[in-house]
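Our platform keeps sequence and structure together, in a single record for each protein. Such a record has a labelled line for the sequence and another for the backbone structure tokens. The tokens are whole numbers drawn from a learned vocabulary of local backbone shapes. The remainder of this section carries one protein's record, kept here as part of the documentation:
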Amino acid sequence: MIRALVADDEAPAREKLERWLAEQPDMTVVGSAEDGLSAARCIEQLRPDVAFLDVQMPTLSGLEVAAQLELASAPLIVFVTAFDEHAVRAYDLNAIDYLLKPYDRGRLARTVQRVRERLHSRESGSTAVAIGRARAPCERLLVPDGERLQLVDATSVEWLEADDNYVRVQTTTRTYLLRRTLQDLLSQLGETRFVRIHRSTAVNLGAIGSLSPLFKGDYEIHLRNGRALRLSRRYREAFFALMGR
């Protein structure tokens, strides 16, 4: 059975899609959500094979939900939208699949068939993640807080540190642990705001207070909160180029 998640802030639209998906012999709806944050939480907890995401939802849009997902483990994404055909092309949603409201059973059946084919070929939702990140700049980051996910402002993240298969996300108030790669997280947050200073460390440019030279070309970065981080010479040139020096 193909496990599906449905996310739409309009209850009638959500219920119709759930009902029509249940008519498919190999589809089962494992969860539903009425806003983007709930959708992201459901994807994290339920691990569906495919997520039908309304593009326009409270807290996070469907594109923003996709942008938060890990490339390697993201489910297939079908964007559901009331945009016209021109807007669909502008958002590049044809690169994956979409349902244009109002749709009928025939259109949904074609979408489900494409989902079947993509799952059979073992495709992931990485294309949808890439489109989400390109179209929805990441100003907020989803982080685990106990058994739940919550949103933090990207500007409050001071530095990132890789730790085996996880990344420590240090904000102004606390530390969160994400099961992501550092490079994947940097591509989401934007490598003009965050810069790599070590193989396992990246820093928010806005958190930097001053620099002081060390030895053999290394520098020490002093954050505004008093924390000191090492800038290795391997990343020195790219760092100074980004800093405009």
Observations:
- The CA atoms of residues 40 and 65 lie 6 Å apart.
- Helices lie at 11-22, 36-46, 62-68, 85-90, 105-120, 126-135, 182-189, 236-243.
- Residues 145-243 form a domain with the OB fold (Dihydrolipoamide Acetyltransferase, E2P) fold (CATH 2.40.50.1020).
- The chain has a mean pLDDT of 89.
